[in-house]
Structures are given as structure tokens and as C-alpha cells.
Amino acid sequence: MLLSGLTSFADWIGSNEDWFRFGNHKDCNDIQGWFQVRRAKAEQALDAIGWEPRIPLSPEPKSFEHVFWFAPRPLQQNVADALSAMKEPAILLVEAPMGEGKTEAAFFAHLELQRRFGHRGLYVALPTKATGNAMFKRTLKFLRDQGTDRKLDLQLLHGGTLLNDTFQNLKLSGVYDAETGSDVRAGEWFTNKKRALLSEYGVGTVDQALLPILPVRHNFVRLWGLANRVVVFDEIHAYDAYTGTLLVHLLRWLLSLGSSVVLLSATLSPSIRRKLAEVVDADLPEPEVKYPRLSVFCPGEEVHQKHFEADPTRRLPLRLQAILPELPGMRSALEEHLANGGMGLALVNTVQRAQDLYRTFPDGEPLEREGQRVGKRLPNGTEVFLFHARFPADRRQKREDQALEAFGEGGNRGGRKILIATQVAEQSLDLDFDCIATDLAPIDLVLQRAGRLWRHAREIRPVSEPVLLVAGLEEDEPPSFGKPLWWGSVYHEDILLRTWSLLHKRQDLTLPDEIDALVQNVYEEKVDVPESQRERLYKTLVNGDGKDIAKHGQANQAIMGLPDDASWNDPARFVLYDEDDPGVHRTLMAQTRLGEDSVVAIPLWPEDGFGSEATPDFVQSKAWFLRAVSLTRKGVVNKLKKLGVPEGWKKSSLLRNCFPLILSTDGRWTEDATVRLDDDLGLVYETKEAE
User: Is pTM, for the whole model, over 0.90?
Assistant: First the structure.
């Protein structure tokens, strides 16, 4: 596998006639001279693409404090201690509350593992584009702070890189730090999606890391790019049975290719730790050490675990308040708790609920950011913002930037501001709220959302205590998770039922003290579900377990094979296409996630002058591509696929995988007027999807 990747890389370089001209018969008279010339050309070619010697950032050992200029917290000190005891690449799992410094611990682990084992770079994998964007900035700062005297290449790997100004600036000019002499840039050669993982440093979605173990063309090149690296996976609790199973298979491959792995999570079920132990053919200790903890999974050894104390200053007792799931009640409860001002979050489980909740607030003065609508200011001065995934990409980015500016650590916290969001605000974004209202969700995600409460120390807050309002807990029986809430289409109903049973009638929580026990009770089925709900739980268990078993089976069948046998060495199987090719049936695509069929749509207005036969130039293609929005509604997807990709767009590198969504002057889709693009709400479906 490694030889295949290296050979393909060498072929890409060697077949470029700009660097390697064809020889002639006279060259045969001096073979040694010809070899020396070609060797020099090879050095020039590698320099031209930005392939620098892969030497450690820190050739000498450094303390944590030397690297980051502050004393390590218990978590970080325990990671440093574990690294010093490691004799070979392994898997490190860090389970700790939000804000404990897991990312800095992972960066330090990279430095030490790279120095100890000669790893040739770092890739950080995250669950979403938004979390990838946030991590890209932190990784860039970390690399620049190391003060290396050589050039470093850093790539951003996901489908929205055109919208990331930090990455685009890195591509155009590099970022040069005259004080340290470091030079970090994003080389053009590595931006090709098949070559991006060959860059020394990268940040992106987990999907990019999973593709190499699926039977896609050139997967061996991508896998070679991950070999002998430090690979960090953040928010690993965020994946379903299918993607989670693929991740476990990827970990087997990474260890076999000499890579070290760092896994980060705030909340994790015991079943996932058991699967990690199976990767190294070991068992978890009985009993396991307390949370927060560090676990080291090393091939051929017992699993080593160590408990460490969480930062006592971040201990958060919070009040839990049950509310009804109806949206007017959620709005009223949030406004009541923020009567004296403050920052509020309403985090709901579906885009439809987010849009409907935004509508319950009265009309107000439009709030804009760089010419794009991001929210409204109500007559009483309250500012309300809406953030979800069904905005065109450029508008969504503005709303994400606005959320970080208004609700981030250094935001302007005057007055009353409320963010209405879906799961896009759940992970990795550094947001800090005085009060949060959330839909009922699986317990680990409820705790993840609660981690946005009072996230940063502040001298004064307009509310007396942190309060988590949970919609769906107030009545004596849990609501239906089907129509009209549709929570059951997002999460497993049995997990929702057990979470409801665990939190119903509870009035307080203490983070992080109770995180581990709460998660174990739900996922290890230790919750006492009321008698009246047991038949409902049984039915959902049968259905849910069947789906999970099917997903596990699909994932096991989807991979190219296992690293410890010859099952992967069958070139005839490598026929699947990447997920972004719209002309290919879903059964022929390599899928890193299961879910509804989706397409990337480009909203186009009459003034855009769209013509199906015309091929837009790069400037126009880029402008349109920046509007991209991913759609999953079955009827819309089927209609767009039937219309097809325009002939002119098939010749565009940016638009060849996109479908035009032609809008009228009032924003309605010309093929279905019940689908419209709204400046305030994003893409709106005015009719419900058929059941």
C-alpha cells in the first residue's frame, strides 16, 4: 500500500515535462551525467511544489510551558507524562469537559510524538466544516508560534475552502513571520483533493480521513499521506454507527502504517472505549478509572488509564428547568430569564423549528454584516440572530462570523442578544451564553450544549445563575418524537426516551462531575424507564438496534479491506466514486456517512443571466459557487437530479458537481413555488415532506 502511494506520487512529479524533458540519443553517451541532471531536476521539482524535508518541528524535548508559555493544567500534564512513557505509536484518548485544554494537549502530543517517532506531519479531523474552520485558525497560530526556520505547508480540507478567508490568504501569499522566521503557506500543488493529504499539515473534516480506506481511485495515495503522521480526531462522540465503525477501521490502518492517533471528546459512551480496546486486541480495565480520564491503547499491551482532576474553577452547578416543546413557550421562558439583558441561546433539533422560532419574534430592524442579513433588532432593543445549515454558503459564513463576534469570549455583551441555532452551534465554536434553551436530545449532546453556559469567567453577568431550559421535559410523559417535532428522525428514540427518563423531574446538574455517570446510565441502559413507557421503549429498541446492526454491516462491507491480510489487494474493487459526483448513482459512491441523498444547489436570480449551455469563467463560477447550499429534501433532490447538471457547468471545475436552483424575483424556485430563499430564514419549504 505504501509503495503504491509513493510510486503514484513519484509518477505525478516525474511525468511533468516542465521539470523532466524527454531525452535524446546523445544523453545515452553519459548515463551518469544524465542521472545527476535528473537528480537535480527532482530536487527542483520538489522545491517547486513545496515539498520540504519532513523534519520535526521540535528536534529537542520541550516542556509544555516552554511550548505554550503557561503552566499545564492537570489534563495537559497527564498527557505529557503518558507521552514520555510511550515506546511506539499508539492511540491516546482524552475525555475531559469543554474548556480544559484538550486542543493544546493534542498539539503538544504532536510535537513530542513527531520528535520521538519521526512522524512527518499532522492532520486534525473534525465532524463539520464549521468546526474545521475554527480549528484551522488555531492550528495556523500553533505552527507559527513554533518559530521554525523552514517552510511549512498547511491545507484546509473540506468543500467550503473558498469561503475561508484565512486559507485563501494563505494560498495567495503565505503568512510570513519576520520575527520568528517561520513561513507557513498553502501550496497550490497540494490543493488538489487527491493530493491534499500529502501536505505536511492539514485540518479538515473526518470524511477526508475516512476516504482512504474506501475502495475509491487513488485511495492508496491518500492513505500514504496519512501514514507515519499524527492524526487527531476531535469531537469523536459526534458519529453514528456507520461512520463510527469506519473510524474504528481507520484506526487499525493508521496503527499498521506507523501513525499515532489522538482522540478527543467531552463525553463518550463506554461502548466506544470497548471498541477502541478491540483495535489493539485488549480489554478495558475493570473497573475503569473515574472521569475525566486519559486512556492509552498500545498494540500488544494492556489499556492504561489515568484519572486527573478537572479545573476546579470551571466546575459549574446549573439549574435544570423543564419547559414544553411548543416554540412560543420556549421564547417566553428565554426572554423571562433574560429580563435584565444577557446572551441567550435557543438550540433546536431541526431547521424547520429554528425558522419557526425565529418567526415567533416580532419583526424588527434588519441587522446586516458586510451587506448580508444576519438578524433583526426588535423594538425593545433585543437582537435576534438565526444560524443553521440551510443558508447559501456565503450567507451562512457571515452568520457564523456574527455569532462568534457577538457570543464569543471577547464579544460585545451589552443589551439582550438571542441566537437561534441548530446543531451547527453545538460543537467546537467558542460561544458563551448566560442562559440556554434546548430541545431534548441524547444525554451527551444535552451536556455538550450545556457546556456553552457560562463558558468563560466574567466579573458580572445579568443573570443570577446558569439555567438550562430543556424542551420536552415538563409533562408527565415524553412527547411524540415523530410528527410534528420530528426529533426521532434526527436521533434514536430509545436514547431520547432514556434521556427523558433520566432528566425528568431533575432540577439541577453539576458539570463536569456528573457527565460520566449520566452518559453511562443512558448508553449502558441503566436508566429506570417508567412503566408507562416500556412498551414504547421496547419498540424503538427493536427498530433502533436493527438499524444500528445494519449500519455496522454496511460499514464493514464498505471498506477496502483489513490491514493485516490481503483483502485490500484487489484492484478490481476500486471502482467507487467520491461523494461529490452528481452523475453517479448513490450505490456507486464511496460514502463516509449515511443519510438522506443530497445535492449541492446554487441559487440563481434572474439578473444572474444563467444559460444552461454557457460555461461561466472562473470569476463567475467562483461567485456562484460561494452561494452553494446542500439540500436533502427528497422531492427537491429528485427534481434537481432529473433536471441535471447544465452542459455548460460540466466544463467548470467548480460547478460540475452542482445543480442550479433557478429563482424568480421574489425568491421562489421556478420548478416549485413552495420552495423559496428568504433573506431572514434561509431556504424555506412551505409544505411538509410527505410521511
Answer: no
Q: Are residues 27 and 165 in the same domain?
A: no
Q: How far apart are CA 219 and CA 125, in angstroms?
A: 17
pLDDT band with cut points at 50, 70 and 90 for residue 138: very high
Looking at the structure, tell me whether residues 36 and 154 fall in a common domain. no
Residue pair 245/552 in contact by the 8 Å Cβ criterion: yes
CB 421 within 8 A of CB 347: yes
Question: Mean pLDDT, to the nearest integer, of 120-138?
Answer: 90
- Omega before residue 56 within 30° of 0, cis: no
Domain that holds residue 525: 315-529
Q: Say how many CA atoms lie within 13 Å of 67 toward its Cβ.
A: 24
- Is there a domain that residue 25 lies in? yes
> Is residue 11 scored above 90 in pLDDT?
no
- The answer to whether residues 154 and 287 belong to one domain is yes
Q: Is residue 187 part of a domain?
A: yes
Nearest 10 degrees: Cα torsion 300, 301, 303, 305: -140
- Mean local confidence (pLDDT), 77-87: 95
Helix (H, G, I), strand (E, B) or coil at 110: helix
Looking at the structure, do residues 206 and 278 belong to the same domain, yes or no?
A: yes
Q: Are 591 and 558 in contact (CB under 8 A)?
A: yes
**Per-residue model confidence as pLDDT tens digits over 207-247:** 999 999 998 878 888 999 999 999 999 989 888 889 999 99
Same domain as 238, residue 193? yes
Domain end point (choices 307, 335, 370)? 307
Asked if 288 and 353 sit in the same domain, the reply is: no
pLDDT in tens, 375-412: 999 999 999 999 999 999 999 999 999 999 999 998 88
Instruction: Name which of 536, 171, 468 is nearest 323 in CA terms.
Output: 468
Cis-peptide into 53, omega within 30 deg? no
Amino acid at 688: K
Report the phi/psi class of residue 608: left, alpha or beta, with left for phi > 0 and alpha for psi in -120 to 50.
Answer: alpha
**Is residue 240 domain-resident?**
yes
Domain boundary among 286, 307, 328: 307
Helix, strand, coil tally for the chain in percent (to 5): 40, 20, 40
**Torsion over CA: 28, 31, 35, 41 (sign):** negative
Residue 480 lies in a domain: yes
Buried/exposed code over 251-290 (b: 16+ C-beta within 10 A; e: otherwise) = bbbbbebbbbbbbbbbbbbeebbeebbebbebebeeebee
Q: Looking at the structure, tell me whether residues 294 and 343 fall in a common domain.
A: no
* 39 and 104 co-located in one domain: no
Question: SS3 string of 603-618?
Answer: EECHHHCCCCCCCCCH
What backbone torsions phi and psi does residue 271 show, to the nearest 5 degrees?
-60, -35
335: CATH: 3.40.50.300
How far apart are alpha carbons 162 and 303 in whole angstroms? 42
* Contact call for residues 590 and 578 (beta carbons, < 8 A): yes
Query: How confident is the model over 538-566, as a mean pLDDT?
Result: 85
Q: Give the pLDDT band of residue 176 (cuts 50, 70, 90).
A: very low
Above 60 in pLDDT, residue 691? no
Please tell me the distance from the alpha carbon of residue 60 to that of residue 111, in angstroms, as a whole number.
Answer: 10
Q: What is the pLDDT of residues 303-362, one digit of tens each?
A: 999 999 998 888 899 999 999 999 999 999 999 999 999 999 999 999 999 999 999 999
Pairing of strands 467-471, 91-95: unpaired
Q: Is the dihedral of CA 123, 124, 126, 129 positive or negative?
A: negative
Is there a contact between 259 and 226 (Cβ–Cβ < 8 Å)? yes
C-alpha cell at 656: 460540475
Structural domain tally of the chain?
Answer: 4
